[in-house]
Amino acid sequence: MITEFDHIVVGGGISGLSRAYSLQKQGVKVLLLEKENRTGGVIHSKTTACGVTELGPNSLAITPLLEQLIEELGLNDQLIKANEVANKRYIYLKGKPILINPKTLIFSNKVIGFGSKIKLLSERFKPAKNVPNETLAGVIKRRFNNEILTNLVEPVITGIYAGSPDKLEYKSSMKRMYAMEQEHGSFTKGFLASRKSGNKREIVSFKQGLQQLTDALRDQLEHVSYEAVQFISLPNDKVVVKTSKKNYNANALTLAVPAYVASELLRPIDDQIAKLIDQVEYPSLLGWQVTFKTTSIQHRIPSFGILFPSISKKVIKGIINYSEIFGTNDDCRHFTVFAAANSTNKEQVEQAVIEEFRSVYGVKDEPIESIFTFYEKAIPQFNVGHSELMKTIDAWEKIYPQIKILGNWRTGVAIGDCVNYA
Predict the structure, then answer these.
(1) What dotted CATH number matches 4-81+206-281+382-421?
(2) What is the reported pTM?
(3) Using CA atoms, how far apart are residues 385 and 53, in angstroms rounded to an integer?
(4) Are the C-beta atoms of residues 180 and 171 closer than 8 Å to each other?
(5) How far is the C-alpha of 224 from the C-alpha of 192, rounded, in Å?
(6) Which of 75, 110, 219, 400 has the fewest Cβ atoms nearer than 10 Å?
(7) What region holds the Amine oxidase domain (predicted)?
(8) Is residue 313 helix, strand or coil?
(9) For the chain, which ranges sit under pLDDT 50?
(10) What residue spans define the domains of the chain?
(11) How do residues 284-322 score in pLDDT, each as one tens digit?
């Protein structure tokens, strides 16, 4: 087997696959190394009698580069676009799901009170600020108030990061919001400008699930090997990668792996950068992929899903209604449910998730399919200090130009961000 390459990519998730594909297009002789027996990383789809079950992300938002990639891979005819109901989002407040839209925010007291409505309407008149190390909670309190943070923002952020607005760094975790304030002076003005420009990202998936994208990328690559990397060294400005099977030599290397993996692989090269990278937090998460007969759902809620703020006192943090989003099978309804859990309480959380879900949707029958997945390290947290860490890594890569560091902990957790950066 060939052991000499121009470039080695470690990590077969969407970032690593996109990076290897891009390099190969440029004529680079590239090897992709993946420790598991499959590529795709957290993107993992399976097909059942009721359609597609997503064991990871459920959809993606189209970006110009993603659109180009999908066309190059010949997947245009495999795209499925989200239904109109995907624009409907619910938040569980006061014991029931409440549709979030301008009407319910301004003309009812279901979500926020009179004072918060005034804060929403007057936000456009507040001057923009650039506060160093500001948390997401801090900016929402600065521009709005605590009720808007608790009832609206916190559940949305939990749905994205499974983390805390009190720890997340504003300008790193919500780059679009930060840009709106800096460029337009307020979130409201920025949102309205975005609506007028028509730059609304389309939500899509594929007929065989999101894994159809990662599989298509893998199939384009000439050299893919399923081996765990054990050690990396840089002799004479070259790269040597030792795996469980052999040594590979290359001129350059891309690490497209989670932060905690990158930290371990970089430790023999630079212990200081490894310690910094190891500070990136990953909360644990419990996922429930469940399918019921449509007739079993007594309280059908056509929408993208439901988010649960901490004040709801529910174990469930979010429900994604995959079947409503993509209209896959009229006879079945597939959901993905997320809850905070750890290795010691996951069985207890599983039972609570089942009971809470049945209560919300009025389900009494047994599911057709039920899969619980525990993610010990789920989603990287862009906590305060993250932007400084990224600057440090940028500077480090100039000292070690043979190595490029990728992954959703660097680029943003959205699939489009991973592809764009890679």
Answers:
(1) 3.50.50.60
(2) 0.94
(3) 36
(4) no
(5) 46
(6) 219
(7) 14-380
(8) coil
(9) none
(10) 4-81+206-281+382-421, 113-197, 283-375
(11) 999 999 999 999 999 999 999 999 999 999 999 999 999
